Amino acid sequence: MSGRGAWTPAAGAKTPPVRPAPASMRLCVGGAEFWEHLERDLGAARDYVYIQTLSFEGDAAGLGLAEALLACEAPRKRVVADAVTKYLINDRFIGLPRARRDAVLQREVAATGEMCDRLERGGVPVRFTWPVGRRFHRLIARNHKKLVAIDDRVAYLGGINFSEHNFAWHDFMVRIESPGIAAFLRQDFEHTWRGHDRAAAAEIDGDQIVVGEGRGNPGLRAAVSRALDRAMRRIVVQCPYISEPFWSALGRAHRRGVHVTVMMPEDHNRAVMKWGTLDASRREGFEVLMLPGPMTHAKVMRIDDSVVLGSANFDYVSFRMQPEIVLITSAPGLVREIGKRILAPDLARGREPANGRRQRWRERLGGVSMRVLEWLSPSVRERRPSPIPLATWRDGTRNSGPGGG
User: Are 399 and 390 in contact (CB under 8 A)?
Assistant: First the structure.
């Protein structure tokens, strides 16, 4: 029978596979917007909440999370923070003489310990990854991942830590509704919880997610390098910390006709990174704009019609020495939102760097310093034990208590 009815497959033919619905992604700019969405998701959680962060401090940001976790009805709730929180709070080393005399800072240090103890008593174990011990050179590279996974339903990725000063920085998280991505992050968290950082990669709902374990991170470097090498028209990078292998990659893109712009904070908390990148820009030819105002901590690349985002800075520390997680996506809504709410406004307010003799001296010194630090980095990485143990707030011993499995 001929006609114009619905098409049906011939006998024995395979039905085309049903493609999964793309992940729903929402940009959360700044700590307040991120917390508004996360607090709502914590209230709706019914199975598990897993949170990993670099810093977890006993201030408004950390205490707010602690209260929400204690009130959350999910039976499985866990937090992993990096051990840097035991040494660095409010971006200050808490053991230095001046910091020890700062009563406000020391009260926050005490509040951080009390917060962790209260969570433990309330059934929310907190573990600290990559303890430092007596080898303080290990502070150079940390477990830098920042992620949230809830109920194999919702996930968050980005650069915001649970500390008040980090909430105030210019930064973002991306809220992702995707069972596949949430489950991937849950599995990654569970590896970290057991003290076994892993390298992993997956394509989920058309998006690429890549994890580096902190020992060279070859898969992470390769994924981002491929994305950069495919650029045809425009690359816009916003990140405070940039170095090789990305200086050279951006230079190669510039030389093949791609318009490359890098945006960095003018008031930088790691000035050697700023001077080194300015030195590289003069050598490689790409454009640099300085962003006035609050510290810019956002980590994002727009490459034509896709974006690269996550916990990783675009430097040798993140891409060779630290566990990191990166999402590469062409989701049109998210790409458009990042352009509209972050990149376009910052391109408009960015300023060209100064060009005096003193400036050039600082840039050359920064470039040399960065190359020396990169040359020394493998020795730091290779001295780190594997697997990396976990510790509690109160001691530096390997965790063997309840919930440590």
Answer: yes
- pLDDT tens by residue, the chain, 405 residues: 333 333 333 344 444 444 455 679 999 999 999 999 999 999 999 999 999 999 999 999 999 999 999 999 999 999 999 999 999 999 899 989 999 999 999 999 999 999 999 999 999 999 999 888 776 767 778 999 999 999 999 999 999 999 999 999 999 999 999 999 999 999 999 999 998 889 999 999 899 999 999 888 999 999 999 999 999 999 999 999 999 999 999 999 999 999 999 999 998 888 888 998 999 999 999 999 999 988 999 999 999 999 999 999 999 999 988 999 999 999 999 999 999 999 999 999 999 988 877 778 888 888 888 887 777 666 555 556 566 678 888 764 333 333 333
Q: What does pTM read for this prediction?
A: 0.88
Rounded distance, CA 231 to CA 261, Å?
Answer: 13
Residues near 283 by beta carbon (within 8 Å), at least 6 away in sequence: 247, 251, 367
Cβ neighbours of residue 41 closer than 8 Å, sequence gap 6 or more: 148, 150, 154, 175
In this structure, are residues 23 and 176 in contact, taking their beta carbons and an 8 Å threshold? Answer: yes
Longest dimension (CA), the chain: 90
Closest CA to 130 of 71, 221, 196, 207: 196
Shortest CA distance to 35 belongs to which of 163, 217, 151?
Answer: 163
Token couple for 276: 């080194």
Q: Which helix (H) or strand (E) holds 80?
A: strand 76-82
C-alpha to C-alpha distance for 3 and 232, rounded to whole angstroms: 46
